Amino acid sequence: MTSTVLNLQPLLEEGRENELAGLLSTLHPADVAEALSPLDMEDTIKVMSLLDVAQAAEVLVELSESSRDQVTLGLPRDKLTQMVAEMDSDDAADIVGDLSEAAAEEVLKAIGDEESEEVRRLLMYDEETAGGLMQLELVAASGQDTVAKVINDIRAASEDLGDLTSIYVVDQARALQGEISLKDLLLAYPHETLSQLIQKAPGLVVRVDEDQKAVAQKFRKYDVRSAPVVDSQNRLLGRIMVDDIIDVVDEETDKDFYRLAGSSEEEVYTSGAIKRASLRLPWLLFNLGGGLVTSFILKYFEASFQKTMALVAFVPMVMSLSGAVGSQSATITVRGLATGRIGQGLIFRSLGMEQKVSLVMALVFGLAITLIAGSLRSAPRLGLAVGLSLGAAILVSAFLGAITPLFFRAINVDPALASGPVVTSANDVAALMIYAAIGSAVA
Amino acid sequence: MTSTVLNLQPLLEEGRENELAGLLSTLHPADVAEALSPLDMEDTIKVMSLLDVAQAAEVLVELSESSRDQVTLGLPRDKLTQMVAEMDSDDAADIVGDLSEAAAEEVLKAIGDEESEEVRRLLMYDEETAGGLMQLELVAASGQDTVAKVINDIRAASEDLGDLTSIYVVDQARALQGEISLKDLLLAYPHETLSQLIQKAPGLVVRVDEDQKAVAQKFRKYDVRSAPVVDSQNRLLGRIMVDDIIDVVDEETDKDFYRLAGSSEEEVYTSGAIKRASLRLPWLLFNLGGGLVTSFILKYFEASFQKTMALVAFVPMVMSLSGAVGSQSATITVRGLATGRIGQGLIFRSLGMEQKVSLVMALVFGLAITLIAGSLRSAPRLGLAVGLSLGAAILVSAFLGAITPLFFRAINVDPALASGPVVTSANDVAALMIYAAIGSAVA
Question: What global pTM score does this model have?
Answer without folding.
Answer: 0.85
